[in-house]
Amino acid sequence: MNTDLGPQAPSTLGIGDRYRIRRPGGPWREVTVCSVGNNVDGSFTVYHQRADDIRCARYTYGAAAVRVTYRAPRCPHAIGWEDCWRCADAEWPDEILTACFGQAPAVA
């Protein structure tokens, strides 16, 4: 089954999303997003699960699209889970908690 959602801006990635990436000259890998952090130079870093062999990737907001294969559930208030004060006291879905703590398994 093809789960490819197609090319999308890396700035749309959130906790639990999966996308394909590769090191220069290496094979393509599917990784799961653990968190996204902004950098002082205007770029951002997407951190991956501990089980993934590529720990993180750095992008600019105008970066070329990445191939997203899965979108995790979003906060019902259309805000990132980690930034929504209304979700801070609520139960996050298990899938999001697992990804946030970096414990999602690598995708084969």
Major beta sheet summary? 6 strands, antiparallel
Radius of gyration: 14 Å
> What is the averaged pLDDT score?
89
Alpha-beta classification? mainly beta
The number of strands is 6
End-to-end Cα distance: 14 Å
Sequence stretches where pLDDT stays below 50 over 5 or more residues: none
Please describe the structure with a list of short key phrases separated by commas or semicolons.
about 110 residues; mainly beta
Q: Overview of this structure, please?
A:
This protein is 6% helix and 29% strand. With 108 residues, the protein is mostly beta strands. Strands 1-6-2-3-4-5 form a 6-stranded antiparallel beta sheet, with no helix packed on it. A hairpin with a 5-residue loop joins β3 and β4. It starts with 5 loop residues before the first strand and ends in an 8-residue tail after the last helix.
Provide a short characterization of the protein structure.
6% of the residues lie in helices and 29% in strands.
Please write out the topology.
Layout: E1 6-8, E2 18-21, E3 29-38, E4 44-48, E5 56-59, E6 66-70, H1 94-100
Antiparallel strand pairs: 1-6, 2-3, 2-6, 3-4, 4-5
